[in-house]
Amino acid sequence: MIAIHGRNALYSIALASAVVAAGFSGSAVAGAGGGVQDKIEYCQVCHGETGRGFYGYYAIPRLAGQQPGYIENQLRDYASGLRHNSVMGGVARGVSPATYGAIAAHFHAMNPAPLGGGGGNVALGREIFANGLPESNVPACSACHGPDAHGTGQIPRLAGQLPSYLVKTLSNWSPERGHSSAGGLSALMVPTTHNLTAAQIAAVAAYVGGLR
Ligand code: HEC
Ligand code: HEC
Q1: 116 belongs to a structural domain
Q2: What does the angle CA 164 – CA 111 – CA 186 come to, to the nearest 5 degrees?
Q3: Which domain holds residue 65?
Q4: What is the pLDDT of residue 153?
């Protein structure tokens, strides 16, 4: 099996053949040539045809409906290495920053149903999202991410995001994003991620993951 970035151990068999295709078209579009549409198709090989994410060996996040400002920030941070991920680091460095805006606008406009799949306590998750956990210094997520979890500007949409991606992300915040990615915005999430227990993270992930 040929692997993108030589990291085939990371992929399930199911994803592997798709990733081989991504590796080929990726190297074709990553250089000077390739229009925005080619790059979007490259993203969709991993993030799903409708942008709703993909469950492989690990969860690949949903991009559909995501805030364009947030997508652009993440691409910049992956490319510079401020946000650590070996797969997306290579992808983002292979795409011209001049096209980030058009790619982000494309995914923002998509609106497929959520994949769902979280196993946490949805009622507890709804409570944490709406009101936080004052006794543990966890703020209400809705204060920043919006009452419908659609985000705004550089604050991401959480609605419909894959629960296992959210659990991974909230459990590894500091090693993956440090405090300075997205121009310091990621520091806003540090107290939240440190003060939530594993069960509370699973609960809020299951709740927002099911929102449209
Ligand atoms: C080889 C598979 C692969 C390809 C191709 C790929 N991605 Fe990703 N992408 C991932 C993985 C895996 C993650 C999760 C990384 C992490 O946990 O930080 C991710 C994460 C992201 C994120 C962060 C999402 C969030 O909610 O924080 C953005 C934005 C993103 N990708 C955009 C793109 C764009 C735009 C393209 C096409 C130019 C693309 N990706 C192509 C695998 C891929
Ligand atoms: C003070 C504002 C604020 C509050 C309150 C807040 N967030 Fe965030 N959150 C942000 C910002 C800003 C980002 C984007 C950080 C970046 O770009 O690195 C973010 C990012 C995230 C991400 C990453 C999304 C992705 O696609 O990778 C998750 C998950 C998240 N927040 C969950 C939560 C949860 C759950 C709560 C409530 C327990 C919460 N947030 C409360 C501001 C906030």
Answers
A1: no
A2: 50
A3: 4-108
A4: 96
